[in-house]
């Protein structure tokens, strides 16, 4: 259990979002029309479901690697926090697209989608992760933040 605590400590949001990214990527690979048949149809005007699935899958796997590398040194550098930070920024960009799709859908239907606060907080959460991961590079417990 100690090894699990080591990887999860202070990073539960990142692990949950990583799993969600990979899950959504696989679901889009199986059923790409799921975006076009939902409030997220507006996202498909800018990006194809295939492109979204590939981005989510790539971000999810790279982020997973960053989470597993966190605290370890590769050729004297702590790459985990840098990878986590970059993936968090990439995740924020993806979640903004979903958030804006819900805003567009809300404007069309005349009332706010209940998903907007959630996607907005995902964006802010990702930006917080990006900041904390890079901040952890300058000191702290040697494992990043």
Protein described:
This protein is an all-alpha fold and 145 residues long. It is 73% helix and 0% strand. It contains seven helices and no strands. Helix 2 runs antiparallel to helix 5 and helix 6 runs antiparallel to helix 7. The longest helix is centred in the middle third of the chain and has 31 residues. The C terminus is likely disordered.
Quick tags:
145 residues, mainly alpha, 7 helices, elongated
How confident is the prediction overall: mean pLDDT? 87
What's the helical proportion of residues?
over 70%
The computed structural class is mainly alpha
Helical segment tally?
7
State the total count of DSSP E strands. Answer: 0
Helix and strand run: HHHHHHH
* Backbone CA Rg: 17 Å
Low-confidence stretches: 140-144
Tell me the strand percentage band: under 5%
End-to-end Cα distance = 20 Å
> Mind describing the biggest β-sheet?
none
Overall geometric form: elongated
């Amino acid at each position: 259990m100690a090894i699990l605590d080591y990887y999860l400590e202070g990073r539960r949001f990142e692990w949950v979002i990583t799993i969600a990214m990979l899950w959504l990527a696989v679901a889009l690979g199986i059923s790409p029309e799921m975006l076009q048949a939902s409030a997220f149809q507006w996202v498909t005007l800018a990006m194809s479901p295939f492109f979204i699935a590939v981005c989510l899958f790539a971000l999810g796997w790279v982020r997973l690697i960053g989470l597993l590398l966190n605290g370890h040194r590769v050729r004297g550098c702590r790459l985990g926090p840098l990878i986590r930070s970059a993936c968090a920024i990439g995740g924020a960009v993806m979640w903004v697209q979903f958030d804006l799709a819900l805003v567009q859908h809300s404007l069309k239907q005349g009332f706010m989608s209940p998903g907007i606060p959630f996607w907005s907080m995902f964006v802010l959460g990702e930006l917080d992760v990006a900041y904390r991961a890079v901040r952890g590079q300058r000191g702290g417990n040697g494992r990043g933040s």
